[in-house]
User: Fold dTTP/UTP pyrophosphatase from Radiobacillus deserti.
Amino acid sequence: MLKKKNGGTILNHLILASSSPRRKELLEQAGFVFQIRTSNVDEEAIQLLNPRKLVESLAVWKGEAVPIQSDEVIVSADTVVSLGNRILTKPKNKAHAMQMLSSLNGRKHDVYTGVMIRSKNIRTVFSVATSVTFWNHSKEDLLRYVESGEPMDKAGGYGIQGMGAFLVKEIVGDYYNVVGLPISSLSRKLKEFDIYPSRFTTINS
Ligand SMILES: Cc1cn([C@H]2C[C@H](O)[C@@H](COP(=O)(O)OP(=O)(O)OP(=O)(O)O)O2)c(=O)[nH]c1=O
Assistant:
């Protein structure tokens, strides 16, 4: 977090441009100190792109929609589920959630999260994919899960970090990416912006 320049010390402030409680938790858990600044972006406005392009475009859109000061670094993200040639975002209602979960049942899908890191002068965009396989569940079990309400604000209609864990047989890749923020890749890229977890001390070389 501390940047040395011409012998002086400059603080880079990290901003998370997201209203997702999961992204906030993951960034806190990884030790970063940050503020939240959100905007209203119509995520339905971008369509018909492949999942990687879609999540990267939405991350850029979300990150560009918030104002930035010269000493700030903004992180924004978007997550979707990709099943064959279909892209699943957040369900509109319980019936839609049931439809999504039925289509994922007993099958493998990919979860894509796109991230943008932006300072006044630099912009980095990347995305990470994680493969997730569901067990085969009865309709009753899926209905019980939908009735819990957990699927409603989550891409693909499930939360692997919550009760939705019962759905998942196997994952290949970054677990945190499924939850909404690929924290391992993000931490590495934040170093390029002189952003480190707050308890990492400054090493004088
Ligand atoms: C697949 C999956 C998704 N999700 C969540 C992560 C994201 O919050 C959400 C996908 O919606 P997004 O549109 O990516 O994010 P958001 O609307 O929640 O927040 P913001 O746009 O303000 O950043 O789905 C889980 O929490 N667990 C899961 O297992």
Notes: Residues 18-20, 22-23, 38, 43, 62, 77-79, 81, 90, 111, 153-156, 158-161, 164, 178-180 surround thymidine-5'-triphosphate (CB under 6 Å). The first helix runs from residue 21 to 29. The domain at 2-191 is CATH 3.90.950.10 (Maf protein).
